Amino acid sequence: MKLLIILLAAGALFSTQISAQSGPASASARAGIDAGNQAWIDGVKTGNIDMILATYTEDAVDCGPSRECFKGKLQIEKHMKAQLASLGRARTAAVTTWGSTQQGRFAYKWGRLMRYMLVTKD
Prior knowledge:
This protein is of the alpha+beta class. It has helices at 2-21, 27-46, 49-53, 73-87, and strands spanning 22-23, 61-63, 69-71, 90-103, 106-117. The N and C termini lie far apart (65 Å).
């Protein structure tokens, strides 16, 4: 029982430290998130994956609705190119950001990406 209380106290202390280090995304992080969202919209409509990738850092992580995550710019690029080959360019696209936070140099954003595809690929 004593060990459990110590572990709970340590867990509470650790989570408090993590919470204290994170907060709302800074203005520059928010601007980066907005630029990334716009690059995604323009990139999926034009088929320009490089435009989207330019907004990612080398150690970025991109997770989709299936909870599958792609770690690093190279994996993200492979995934996006496979998606483009499979789905084609989007006719229209939109991004809705539900929230964001920042912890040190890392900014986290969550929301919804929507794309509507062309009927035929070109």
